Each structure stands twice: as C-alpha cells, then as structure tokens.
Amino acid sequence: MNESASLGTAATSKDQGIAPVYRKIIWRLIPFLFLCYVLNYIDRVNISFASLQFREDLGISTAAYGFGVGIFFVGYVLFEVPSNLMLQRFGARTTIMRIMVAWGVVSISTMFVTSATQLYVVRVLLGIAEAGFFPGVVFYLTLWFPSALRARIMAMFVLAIAVAGVFGGPASGFIMSRMSDLWGLRGWQWLFLLEGIPPVIAGIAAYFLLSNGPHDADWLSADEKALVIADLAAEAEARANSKHGSFLAAARDPRLYAIAGAWFTIAWCGSVINYWSPAIIRNSGISDTLTIGFLSAIPYAVGALGMLIINSHSDIKLERRWHYAFSAGTAALAIGLLPLAANTWQLAIVLLTMLSVGYLASVALFWSIPTAYLSTGAAAGSIALISSLGQLGGLTAPNIIGWTQHITGNFAAGFYTVAFGMVLGTGIMLIAIPARLLKERRIAER
C-alpha cells in the first residue's frame, strides 16, 4: 500500500466512496467543465480533419502542416503560467470566460487563412487564447476535492477528450463531406466556423454558472461548506512541512522538472492520436472522409471505458505511480507497433484503441501525482509550469513526425522516437517521485 495511505482516517475501501457533499459538487461543476473541455479539444484538434482538405487547397506540405500543429504550443506555453496566476488572483469565473470567448473567436478566424504563414499566425493566437484552460481547471478542482478523489474526478473531466473524439470525428467528417462548397465555403471553412461558435456561448455561461470556491458557493449549505473546507485544510496541513510553500520555492525543486518531463512525453503521445490518427486511418486504406470520422471514434469510445476503470482502481488503492506507469507503457507499446498497421486499417484501429486507453488514463492519473506532492500555496503556478514545459512536447512531436514522414515517406521513425521518449520519461518520474512524497489521506464516507 502507498505509504501516504496511512494519513488521515481508517484505510478501508468503503472510505473511498464519494460523500454526498462531493457528489453534489460533482453534479454542479463537472458536467459544465466537461462540456467546456469537449469544446476545447474539438477546437484544438479539428485541424487534423480540416487538413485532409486545406492542405491541398492551400498547397501545404506534410512538414508544414506538422509545423502549424506544433506552433500552437508556442503561445500556449508562454501564457500558461500567467493565466493560472491570474485565475488564482481573479477567480475561475472571469478567467474561464475570458479564455473560452477568445479561443472561440480565434478558431472561427481560421476559416479565412489563405497561406501557410497565415495558418501559423492563427495557430499561435489560438495557443495564446487557450493557454491556462486545462491547468486552470486542474487547479480549480483542487479547490473543491481532496486528493483521495482526484483520479476519479480527473477521469470524469478527461473523459471529455474521449467524447470529443467520439463525436468530434464523425461531426467533422459530416461537415466536411456534406457542406463543402455550400454558399461558396469549403468544408474545412464550415468546420472552423461551426465548431468555433459554441465556446463563445459557453464562455459567457461560465461567468454565471461557476463559483470561485467553496466559500462563495451559495448552492452549498453552511455545514457542507464547513465539511469541504475542513477536508481541504487537513490535507493542506499534511503538506505544511513541504519545502515549497510558494510557487517561487517550488520552481527551484528539481523534482518538479522530472514531473514536467513525464508530461512532455504524454504530450508527444497525445500528438499521435489527436493530430495524426485521421492520416493513419487514411493511409491504412480508408479514403472516404466520413468513414474516417466514424472509425476514428472507436478508439476514443473504448479508451474512455478503460480510463474510468484504471483511474477508479487507482483511487480505491490510493496508488498513483504504477497505475500511471502501466498506462503510459501501454500507450508507448501501441505507438511502437503502429508502423505495422501501414496497410491494414483493422490493425490500425486496434492499435489506436490501445493507444487511446493508455493515453487517456495517463492524462487523468498524471495530475493526481503533482497535486499530491505540491503544497497549496505552490499549486497554481506549479501546475501551470509543469503543463507549459510539458506542452513543449506538443510543439516538438508534430514537427518530428511530420518531418520524418516527409523525408522517409512513412511514420515509423517518428513513432519510434515518441515511444522511446515515453518510456524514458516515465522511468525518470518513477525515480524522482517516490511514493513517500505523495501526501494523500483517505476520507471517510459521510
């Protein structure tokens, strides 16, 4: 058993049930945040479907497309930490509204690009607009839920990636195949227009639906607020002796960069399934855009189920590191085997499904590790720093994969590089973050 499991109340599996107050918070916050992340992911990765048309329309090569995908993370990385520090200061309502409205407007503007250079500019702006959303929500959830519940809570949130894949692929395929040349717009232009409007609407709604924390949640009773605040205070006290009581102190901790290195390789993994799966399916023998969209939904659907099972088991056992290592290793193995599916679409779907299970579980599990290690005062900035440094993987992987595919004519070299990097990054984090450093406590069901 994880040494940290000895903290707090009696360690029984029943204690890992979700108390009524937390179920109430879940139903109030998670469905809306889930919807926001679905929209976020669709707007970030719909370029993978749009590229099936606009690359030919604009005369953009595979390498140039990879650069356009990756350059998104330049703006994203530069503005994540400032955005999260603003969320900590001004609250989630205002910050999430600003982020969502901005990214929706920028996403819509992508429909007007006419060259590779314009695509690069819009992708950088989209990265700036989206910066802070994911790490902001990760930090926001730490204001409501103790660490013993976070793997399951993060799984509920990260499930949005799977839902975006399940519905986003078919929807994107439908828009591009059925609306192309309607009113003089190409299918990819309709795609950016129709998928850019919902975030603007949801961003405005966020201001009215979200509370900044338990203290100002008028939908919780006084006793419920006191219970949540007490749980979080007890957890904060368990980390009171942490050497990083502030963000600046945490930024000097080498272990923080080992964690960021692991997230870097998960971002590499995400690039494969999020930006290249349509091309992998097409290259394996499927040419119809709508069919590609439906087939691309299968890995995400199965991946969602696998993620929920793995993350729930992690919470029950209160063990994070080896659950994460298993998930990341599964994804790395799938990526390493993908070159074998070059001409067999059935095998491609099986391996993409295996990749999806490992990737989605890794994303959700990953954030239960730094949030159990960092002190409360250091969490907001440190989470953003880990995310921003790790997202450099999102900048480099598309370029590596695109460049090697352009040079060699296949994805093998790029995929092998990503798989090796994931194994290396996971090993480094396991060594750098031993179980004794994860200060978690079980909470009794009340």
TrEMBL record:
Annotated InterPro entries: MFS, MFS_dom, MFS_trans_sf
Keyword Isomerase set for record: no
CDD domains, sorted: MFS_ExuT_GudP_like
Coiled coil: none
Location in or out of the cell: Membrane
Keyword terms, alphabetized: Membrane, Transmembrane, Transmembrane helix, Transport
Pfam family, one: MFS_1
ATP-binding listed as a keyword: no
Signal peptide: none
Domain spans labelled Major facilitator superfamily (MFS) profile: 29-437
PANTHER family tied to this protein: PERMEASE-RELATED, TRANSPORTER, PUTATIVE (AFU_ORTHOLOGUE AFUA_6G08340)-RELATED
Name of the featured protein: MFS transporter
Species name: Methylobacterium brachiatum
